[in-house]
């Protein structure tokens, strides 16, 4: 996982890195201040045990896999990517363990700036309920991820603005107040 502030002045394809030069990195500790959790789980014989440990600690009961690619999404590819990249929140955590490929999760910090999180195999990321975020593939146009859920999945994105949503209010009240520099 690599996180950095997203260069909004760059109007190129969203699948491009959109990274400032020089880069403006964000650490896992800074992500934790806004409720984003991260683990890297090595691809070895203990990988499943480690995923199961995290799932048990966080009360994730269900799981499935998703493949985001032209082949995996078929005719829905363009519309799905467009909808994933719309700024939104969910009323549940969004948990992804990257099995193969790569992509980007973008999240808003306390100052309403985008942070881009580049994920690749072995990365496990948790976005808290109520955080504004979006997702896109990178230029490889392929990612396969294990999705974990506390209950049955709720995939209803609530597009911004949703500042009166109770999950958004709870999220804002739960994060660390200092902004990331």
TrEMBL record:
<dbReference type="GO" id="GO:0010308">
    <property type="term" value="F:acireductone dioxygenase (Ni2+-requiring) activity"/>
</dbReference>
<dbReference type="GO" id="GO:0019509">
    <property type="term" value="P:L-methionine salvage from methylthioadenosine"/>
</dbReference>
<dbReference type="GO" id="GO:0016151">
    <property type="term" value="F:nickel cation binding"/>
</dbReference>
<dbReference type="InterPro" id="IPR027496">
    <property type="entry name" value="ARD_euk"/>
</dbReference>
<keyword id="KW-0223">Dioxygenase</keyword>
<keyword id="KW-0539">Nucleus</keyword>
<comment type="function">
    <text>Catalyzes 2 different reactions between oxygen and the acireductone 1,2-dihydroxy-3-keto-5-methylthiopentene (DHK-MTPene) depending upon the metal bound in the active site. Fe-containing acireductone dioxygenase (Fe-ARD) produces formate and 2-keto-4-methylthiobutyrate (KMTB), the alpha-ketoacid precursor of methionine in the methionine recycle pathway. Ni-containing acireductone dioxygenase (Ni-ARD) produces methylthiopropionate, carbon monoxide and formate, and does not lie on the methionine recycle pathway.</text>
</comment>
<feature type="binding site">
    <location>
        <position position="88"/>
    </location>
    <ligand>
        <name>Fe(2+)</name>
    </ligand>
</feature>
<dbReference type="InterPro" id="IPR014710">
    <property type="entry name" value="RmlC-like_jellyroll"/>
</dbReference>
<comment type="pathway">
    <text>Amino-acid biosynthesis; L-methionine biosynthesis via salvage pathway; L-methionine from S-methyl-5-thio-alpha-D-ribose 1-phosphate: step 5/6.</text>
</comment>
<dbReference type="GO" id="GO:0010309">
    <property type="term" value="F:acireductone dioxygenase [iron(II)-requiring] activity"/>
</dbReference>
<dbReference type="GO" id="GO:0005506">
    <property type="term" value="F:iron ion binding"/>
</dbReference>
<comment type="similarity">
    <text>Belongs to the acireductone dioxygenase (ARD) family.</text>
</comment>
<dbReference type="InterPro" id="IPR004313">
    <property type="entry name" value="ARD"/>
</dbReference>
<feature type="binding site">
    <location>
        <position position="90"/>
    </location>
    <ligand>
        <name>Fe(2+)</name>
    </ligand>
</feature>
<feature type="binding site">
    <location>
        <position position="94"/>
    </location>
    <ligand>
        <name>Fe(2+)</name>
    </ligand>
</feature>
<keyword id="KW-0963">Cytoplasm</keyword>
<dbReference type="InterPro" id="IPR011051">
    <property type="entry name" value="RmlC_Cupin_sf"/>
</dbReference>
<protein>
    <recommendedName>
        <fullName>Acireductone dioxygenase</fullName>
        <ecNumber>1.13.11.54</ecNumber>
        <ecNumber>1.13.11.53</ecNumber>
    </recommendedName>
</protein>
<dbReference type="Pfam" id="PF03079">
    <property type="entry name" value="ARD"/>
</dbReference>
<feature type="binding site">
    <location>
        <position position="94"/>
    </location>
    <ligand>
        <name>Ni(2+)</name>
    </ligand>
</feature>
<keyword id="KW-0560">Oxidoreductase</keyword>
<feature type="binding site">
    <location>
        <position position="133"/>
    </location>
    <ligand>
        <name>Fe(2+)</name>
    </ligand>
</feature>
<dbReference type="GO" id="GO:0005737">
    <property type="term" value="C:cytoplasm"/>
</dbReference>
<keyword id="KW-0486">Methionine biosynthesis</keyword>
<keyword id="KW-0028">Amino-acid biosynthesis</keyword>
<keyword id="KW-0479">Metal-binding</keyword>
<keyword id="KW-0533">Nickel</keyword>
<feature type="binding site">
    <location>
        <position position="133"/>
    </location>
    <ligand>
        <name>Ni(2+)</name>
    </ligand>
</feature>
<feature type="binding site">
    <location>
        <position position="88"/>
    </location>
    <ligand>
        <name>Ni(2+)</name>
    </ligand>
</feature>
<feature type="binding site">
    <location>
        <position position="90"/>
    </location>
    <ligand>
        <name>Ni(2+)</name>
    </ligand>
</feature>
<keyword id="KW-0408">Iron</keyword>
<dbReference type="GO" id="GO:0005634">
    <property type="term" value="C:nucleus"/>
</dbReference>
């Amino acid at each position: 996982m690599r996180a950095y502030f997203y260069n909004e002045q760059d109007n190129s394809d969203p699948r491009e890195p959109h990274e400032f030069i020089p880069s403006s990195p964000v650490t896992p500790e800074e992500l934790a201040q806004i409720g984003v959790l991260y683990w890297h789980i090595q691809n070895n014989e203990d990988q499943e045990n480690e995923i199961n440990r995290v799932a048990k600690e966080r009360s994730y009961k269900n799981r499935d896999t998703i493949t985001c690619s032209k082949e995996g999404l078929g005719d829905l590819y363009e519309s799905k990517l467009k909808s994933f990249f719309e700024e939104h929140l969910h009323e549940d955590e969004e948990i992804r363990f990257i099995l193969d490929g790569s992509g980007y999760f973008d999240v808003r910090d306390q100052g309403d700036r985008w942070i881009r999180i580049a994920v690749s195999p072995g990365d496990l990321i948790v976005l808290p309920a109520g955080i504004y975020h979006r997702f896109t593939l990178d230029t490889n146009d392929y990612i396969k991820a294990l999705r974990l859920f506390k209950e049955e999945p709720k995939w209803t994105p609530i597009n911004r603005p949703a500042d009166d949503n109770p999950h958004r209010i709870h999220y804002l009240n739960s994060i660390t107040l200092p902004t990331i520099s």
